[in-house]
What does this fold into?
Amino acid sequence: MGAVTPVPVRLGRPGRSGAAAHVAGSPPGNPPAPGMPLRGPLVDSFGRVHTDLRISVTDRCNLRCVYCMPEDGMKFLPPDRLLGFEEIARVARVARSLGVTSVRITGGEPLVRRGVVDLVARLAGIGFEDIALTTNGTGLGRLAAPLARAGLRRVNVSCDSLREERFARIRRRGDLRQVLESMDAAEESGLAPLKVNVVLVAGVNDDEVLDFAGFARNTGRIVRFIEYMPLDADASWRRDQVVPADLVLSRIGERWPVAPLDQGGDPAPATRYRFLDGSGEIGVVASVTRPFCGSCNRLRLTAEGSIRNCLFSDDELSVRQVLERGEDEALALLLRRAVWGKRAGHGMDQPGFVRPSRSMSMIGG
Ligand code: SAM
Ligand code: SF4
It folds into this structure.
């Protein structure tokens, strides 16, 4: 990334109604930010080009993973606050026209939103190079084939333990066997190579690193070890619960040597490694110990219609009013403003770091 002088931009936060304090695209009240390009790719003030849109279709979930949601008392959006599929598709279409090439559907648990197959078909019709989905796997056995037929290309299935009892304890509800069967169903439907997301929490499941590495070697699935981030809804995250990616890699490397894969400049969050004996690959997502903000190419659409430029920043712009007015140009300007205002990094290592007010499932992981 070149040394580009940052231009500070204050983004409006959505109010209770979901309306943005500033609505982009409605000059003279809200003119484009100084220096912000009005043509070309979606770029931020540090020169990062944004090509990946994460779409949250719901903040609800049928599980309550310990690192994500409390067991009881989680408040969810009323259904009438969710963006409809037509609205989501419009945002996606405008994002595509600005150079976004890939989308990932997430949540909450995206497969609890009724009609998600229809959304995939709509997105496929827009012409993205890649349409992916992240799921806890509980509904995937039933939906893998229809999703693949609708145009889904890839799927990440979250699974934090290969031991039934522990799996149930971490995810609080849910059943390991069902999730393993859903991985088979996804592969049979052509959703391969399958990625398996493992959030490691020290003292909870970090003794399974080698089991998961062995699982990757035996199944050809790409296991991605994710560092626990301060995005849990009950704010109980502690730094000493993070299992550093370097520790994971050294443990695996002692048993089965690995080497970094040439990612050809791919800004994906996971750093990929191949087993030197040719038996597959693993990845690490080191958001805490080795932040990859410098190459971040992602923006997010939350379930109620806010554009968010970083998991860790509460700055959001709501697309609702712009959608109601039906102006794609104004929507494009809003996406540009949201991206332009992105900070250099999440700042987790800086003294003034404050956790974002919304947790992972409310934003869309
Ligand atoms: N419900 C789906 C699932 O679990 O895969 C999709 C949404 S979930 C928020 C997306 C990913 O974020 C999952 O892989 C989940 O394990 C991960 N995740 C949730 N809370 C996290 C946290 N505090 N730190 C790191 N990863 C987290
Ligand atoms: Fe649900 Fe996914 Fe959060 Fe677990 S990580 S509680 S499955 S949204």
